[in-house]
Specification:
0% strand
Length: 271
């Protein structure tokens, strides 16, 4: 009896310590830095925060970032869905290698990705010598954003296709539905939660991209200066309050996106 009680006490204490360690780790690593950014952004009052946010240079940087991040996310929605479909539904030589390369943007430092784009599309590249002026313009920023967010939609779609019952498609074909009708009526609704959540994650990730973008954007104020590079410039100029104010905008937008993703995933689980 005493032995059982001791085992339960040790188990409860171990469980309590484990939970406490995780919560402390989460607090120090996530909550405290986020809280610090919000405190810093309002450290000089609401007027200073509003002045930093509505500054023309900051506002243009944020709007440019949102616009290009939306474009990059839309590209990934289409391309990522097609690639995810091909990797699951087709068998061909090199499929496993291609599937493993999907996660390469997660493994590479983003600055390396920016350097690759610079070497492939820069003035000294074959395309540059042919007169294609891409680097230091908006298309180069979009390409960098697409590269770093490439895996999100693919990895969101693949599990849904793997879990899908083949009988659903077979039933549609048995009832006389064409391939296109079956895809849009049966397959696409199954993939849709992964497409939406992957696209939202890609958009959120593109908003904050710095390493790849800073090498190919040119950082021209009002034209190619994105929000992350603007924040870096404000820190370099010792304007931490201004940098924190713009960071709060991006952070709040990311929170809203994560909240929307949770709603989408919750509906998927209830379905």
């Amino acid at each position: 009896m005493n032995r059982d009680v001791n085992i339960r006490l040790r188990s409860s204490w171990w469980s309590f310590g484990f939970r406490t360690a995780i919560l402390l780790y989460f607090f120090l690593l996530v909550i405290l830095p986020i809280f610090g950014i919000y405190v810093q952004s309002f450290s000089q009052g609401w007027s200073a925060f509003a002045e930093s946010v509505i500054d023309p240079l900051a506002w243009k940087a944020v709007l440019l970032t949102v616009r290009l991040a939306v474009l990059a996310a839309l590209i990934n929605l289409v391309v990522g869905t097609i690639i995810g479909w091909v990797l699951i539904r087709y068998r061909f030589p090199g499929r496993r290698l291609l599937n493993s390369l999907v996660d390469l943007p997660f493994a590479l430092p983003t600055a390396v990705g920016g350097l690759m784009i610079l070497l492939l599309l820069g003035p000294n590249s074959p395309l540059g010598k042919l007169g294609f002026d891409i680097v230091y313009h908006e298309p180069a920023i979009v390409i960098a954003m697409v590269f770093v967010t490439f895996p999100f939609v693919i990895r969101g779609v693949q599990p849904l296709l793997e879990e899908m019952e083949a009988s659903e498609e077979e039933a549609a074909y048995t009832m006389g539905a064409s391939r296109s009708r079956t895809f849009f009526s049966v397959i696409l609704p199954t993939m849709l939660p992964g497409i939406i959540s992957g696209g939202m994650l890609a958009f959120s990730r593109a908003l904050a991209e710095f390493g790849a973008v800073v090498l190919v954007a040119g950082n021209i104020p009002g034209r190619t200066l994105v929000a992350s590079v603007y924040i870096f410039g404000q820190i370099e100029s010792d304007n931490t309050q201004g940098a924190a104010a713009v960071s709060v905008l991006l952070l709040t937008l990311s929170f809203l996106i994560l909240w929307a993703i949770n709603i989408v995933q919750g509906r998927r689980k209830r379905a």
